[in-house]
Amino acid sequence: MDLQYPALKTRLLLLDAAIQRAWLRERKRAIEEILHLLASVGLEPRDMPQLLQENAGSIKHPLMLDARKQTALRIKRSPQFIDPATGRSWNGLGKRPKWLTGNIERFRVVGF
What we know:
Elements: H1 5-40, H2 48-54, H3 67-73, E1 81-82, E2 89-90
Antiparallel strand pairs: 1-2
Organism: Cupriavidus yeoncheonensis
Protein name: H-NS histone family protein
């Protein structure tokens, strides 16, 4: 399989979009589990800020990062449009690129 750069770039962008969708599904599932666990012990989501404040010093987890690191690790928005000729992409935010002209739906990534 000898793919050229634009085709590989397109595949990578499509894979990034699939990863983003999978992450959103897992996040939703985790939130549902948390809500179920809270309800099972008679707590509600509105109780969480106070509980977290009271226990802030005792909660240590490697994934708990300061705001600067959270910003650096924030998940980027997946591309919504890809130019198959060049592999360039656009996520739909900001000024529309010049290559995205005419019927833009032909450039839309499937799944968006």
